Amino acid sequence: MVARAPPAAAADAGSVELVVVLLVGSVAVSPVERAVAVPVGLVFRNEATFLPYYLPCPDLFTMQLQYREEKALPPFPQLFYPQPKALHQMRTDVLTLTAWLAPIVWEGTFNSDLLDSIYKPLNLTIGVTAFAVGKYTQFVGRFLDSAEKHFMVGYCVNYYIFTDNPQGIPFVQLQSGRTLSLVPIKKYKHWQEISMRRMEAINLHISESIHDVDYLFCLDIDMEFHNSWGTETLGELVAAIHPGYYNVRSREELPYERRKTSAAYIASEQGDFYYGGAVFGGLVKNVYEFTRACHMAILADKANGIMAAWQEESHLNRYFLSLKPSKILSPEYLWDDRKPKPPEMRLVRFSTVSKNYKELRD
Hints:
Largest sheet: 8 strands, mixed
Membrane topology: Single-pass type II membrane protein
Helix content: 10-25%
Low-confidence stretches: 1-45, 48-67
Structural class: alpha/beta
GO cellular component, one term: membrane
Subcellular location: Membrane
Keywords: Glycosyltransferase, Manganese, Membrane, Metal-binding, Signal-anchor, Transferase, Transmembrane, Transmembrane helix
CATH superfamily of the largest domain: Spore Coat Polysaccharide Biosynthesis Protein SpsA, Chain A
Cofactor: Mn(2+)
């Protein structure tokens, strides 16, 4: 904004024209006057001197750029909870924060009541995708029944079940505010092809249909919820540590794709954690970008006649190496019931169902 001084002011300045430049792009807040401090440029003979100028502009305090996935947080509730202590860690037996400052969610590291008091007023809707293809339709009933008991209880949830056999999906009574949509997909001969097509199908469905949810989780159908899965898992981009590799001694033990010809290649001296492909999620726009990138990498491998060691899971790990997840779920959220529960696992929230893989994939 440029304002020119009146003639009298110019004469007083010694016949030098005074130009006042309001640099509105750079502001500082004065909490006392509730005004915006705007630097003012006084231009004399192509030289500028900047002086503070307070421009009453209360609207700037409430202006926000709104997206579907961004909602203004309500005033912090007046709750009573234990005082945080800077010198006291809630868990000392496990890692709770990564080097890039992403929290790792374990039981005992969060307050569910406090989180719900923040998220409930936002009226969030959480989406869930799962694939029930071929004989995997037998797991849908158990998955949904357990989800209704433990997954985001008290929140609106939209389930999206991708299936090649809609008639094989059982009826499950859902809570109020929760819906089930069946997404027809093509039937493939080999389970590897189904796995490789998952990223493509999710990405396509997000672009075409999923516009009514705030967060989206992509989960395997042959799993069961055992304990609460709540808003502690919400984040911009969320990954889960694989239960088989959370306690390895070195990176060499992680089953990354090691062939340089693959788009999923990770060098032996690289890597953070090994993430499981059975659980990932985040804001819808971030899940869209993530699934698109993985799908493009899978297509690149296919064009070069190569399939990554662990199909989409290998590409998932490669993506998270470059673009770190903002929140990581501990193995509590992705457990394998065939493994004994170690002492650091205070509870299991989501785990695989015992099954015969050969029978399912034949």
